TrEMBL record:
Pfam families: FA_hydroxylase (PF04116). One of its GO terms (molecular function) is oxidoreductase activity. The keyword Membrane applies. This is Delta7-sterol 5-desaturase. GO terms for biological process: lipid biosynthetic process. Keywords: Membrane, Signal, Transmembrane, Transmembrane helix. Residues 1-26 form the signal peptide. InterPro entries: Fatty_acid_hydroxylase (IPR006694), Sterol_Desaturase_Related (IPR050307).
Amino acid sequence: MVSIVKRIPFFIAFIVSLCISQSVEAQIRIKNAADTLLDMDTVDEFAISTSFITLGYVMLYFCVSGLLEYTNPTPKTPKRMKWIKKEIRLGVFALIADVTYAGLWLWLVDRHTPYYGYYNTHEFTAWSLLMNVLTYLFVFDTWFYWTHRFLHQKWWWKNVHVVHHKFMKPSAFAQDAVHPFEAVFQGPMGHHLVSLVYPMHPIVMAVMGAGTAIYASAAHDGRAGDLNDHNKHHTFMNVNFGLYWGVWDYICGTRYDAKKRPAYKKIQEEYEKLTPNQDLIDGGVDALECVDKQD
């Protein structure tokens, strides 16, 4: 009896999806869901749409990062919890910056971009989907890598990027623990850039944006989801700049190499001189010990 009850939601979902699949009107509504949900012709629509955007950002940040931290086996010591609270405080301000930029872009800029409404007159095929995904991954990863390198220049490091690098043993919440400028620069700015170079479907954009946020949280969690070994970047500062994978790092010679550890440590010391912060230095010692055990 219990097993039957558990299956009821799946049966309901199947029936609903079956009915929807038979309705051309429903298919059209689903296809244009992002356009209709985020209509911004009036101030009221802007406020409603921005509320949806805010809800999405907040749910992704707190639910995903919270779940990752809850399942993370790292001991929840007072020191770690103190740092997580700092990450969350910074993350809230970063979310405000992200939502503001994204809302204003969709309200004032999006409709004037070259490919706006492209799929209202063009068929969205499986090939379109594949090209949308590949284009997004390449363009955003390229943008992220080079803007990340830019943020490591002396002035930008001292005044912007160091906020994020204070967390040398980050938790998933560190994903958004950044300076508000960096939050926009490496987040929604790169995200919306993709739609300027290729006709992207709004639903694909939404899914890829959400997926990237989840991926970035997992990368800062430092476990299996850290496919690009981002924790090494927080430890040694000048390696593994990429987002999704290490392609640009391999091309530009910034991929982490255990044989170059002495050189990395010298670079780390130079960064620490630029940021005379005892918390950062203490965290660096802990992080180095952790990496030593891994190597």
